[in-house]
Amino acid sequence: MSISEEKPTLTLEQVVQELELRIVLGRLRPKERLVEEDLILELGVKRHIIRSAFLELERRHLVDRRPNKGARVRDYSVEEVNALSAFRADLYRLAISKIRFPISTKSLAELRRIASAHETAGQAGDYGRAVTLDNAFHTCLSELCENRYLIASIGEMSAAARPIDCFRIADPAISSRAVADHQQIIQAATRSHSSELIELCVNHIFSSSDNYVRDVLLHRDEGY
To answer: Is 33 strand, coil or helix?
Structure first.
C-alpha cells in the first residue's frame, strides 16, 4: 500500500467514540478486558492514544483501570444500577424545577428535530447515530435549566448509564418505547407541565434500568 493509500490516523476523540459505542451497544461486555496491543493493531494508532482513550472512558465511568491489570469494561451490580438511576432521577427533578416556562419556540423546535432524527436513525438500523441523538435529546432538555453545573452533572451520569439506557436498542419494542417517550416529553414541555415532565423523565430512566437489571444482571447472577 502506498503512502497515499494508507488509512487516515484516528484522533483520540474518534478512538474514544468507537470504544464507547462498542460498550454501549454491548459489543464489549461487562468485565471484558480491553487489550492495548489488539486495539493498536486494529485501529492503527499509537499506544499513547489507546491509553489516553482508556483514561477518558474511565472518566466517563465506562471502564475500570487497575494497576498491572489493564482496563476492563465496567461491571455494575444491581445495587449500583439502582443507585445510579435514583441519583439521575433526582438530578432531573431538580433541573426541571429550574426551567423557566414557557419554553421557547426555538428550543421546542430543536427537541422535535432531534427526536425525529433519532427515530429515523433507529428505523434505518443506524444504532450508533441513534445513541448519539438520544444523548443529544436529553442534553437539549437538561440545558433548559440554565445551570451549567447541574447540566454537567446530568451529562456525566448519563454517560455512565449509557450502556444501561441503550441496552437492546436494536429491539423494535424498546426502540418504539424510546421514541414514544421522547414525544410525550416534548408534549409535556410544550404544555409547560412541570410535574408531568418530571414524571416522564423519571419513568424513562427507571424503565431502562429495570430492563437492564431484569434481562442482564439478574440472569447473570443466577448463573445463566
So the answer is: strand
Stretches where the chain sits below pLDDT 50 are: 1-5, 223-224
Cα distance between residue 130 and residue 224, in whole Å: 30
pTM: 0.83
DSSP state of 85: H
70-73 sheet: strands from edge to edge: 33-34, 70-73, 63-66
Residue 197: CA count within 13 A, CB half-sphere = 25
Closest by CA to 210, choosing from 176, 167, 162, 159, is 167
Helices and strands: H and E segment counts in the chain: 11, 3
Alpha-carbon distance of 183 to 185, in angstroms, equals 5
Copy the grid coordinates of residue 65.
Answer: 483501570
Cα angle at 180 between 177 and 181, to 5 degrees?
85
Q: In this structure, what C-alpha cell is assigned to residue 192?
A: 409547560
Predicted local distance difference test score (pLDDT) of residue 220? 64
Question: What is the rounded CA–CA span in Å between residue 114 and residue 97?
Answer: 23
Alpha helices per DSSP H over 44-144: 47-59, 78-97, 105-123, 127-142
H-helix or E-strand spanning residue 159: helix 148-160
Which residue carries 478512538 as its cell? 15
CA distance 135 to 190: 20
Other C-beta atoms lying within 10 Å of the C-beta of residue 55? 15
